[in-house]
What does this fold into?
Amino acid sequence: MSSAPASSSVPASHPLTLHPLRFTQEEIDEVVALYASNPAYWRAAGEYDPDDIRASRVEADLREEAATEGGEVLLARDGEGCLAGLVCLLDRHPKDGLPWIGLLMVDGGSRRTGVGRRLAGLVEDRFRAGGRSGLRLAVLENNPDALAFWGALGWQEVDRRADTAHGRPCIVMHKQLA
It folds into this structure.
């Protein structure tokens, strides 16, 4: 979501690959820089002060995500090894049994360059290859850009409800994979 800055733009010719977050200090610093490059999201979400994103809190939150049964935190890297994005996944939601994307974030400098679309495609392909027929996520109601992004990728609204972690109003979206 650093000492090593997140990449400001990932050329479409560079492949993206997913790697489990190993929680090294270098990776945490990269994620802090990624998060800091998205201040509008954090203002809308209310989870972090976009002007004061602390590495210790980011690490603790991501460790909690990774420790959740079926949870994974993956870093997306370009062909040169630069951080292009982060995705938090849940293999099986306890309420509906479907896989979920908990967070998908790209470097703020890469917005509208296709990186998010490519990262979403990698996630969809991953679950499709695992035999999963559908995938879900929740978009904050106060984040119309994210709603437009996911809608353009073929995701459809299936519900509106508060998120379980913070009680924020969300739009639950679904994409059929098979």
Summary: Residues 115-129 form the longest helix (15 residues). The chain has five helices and seven strands.
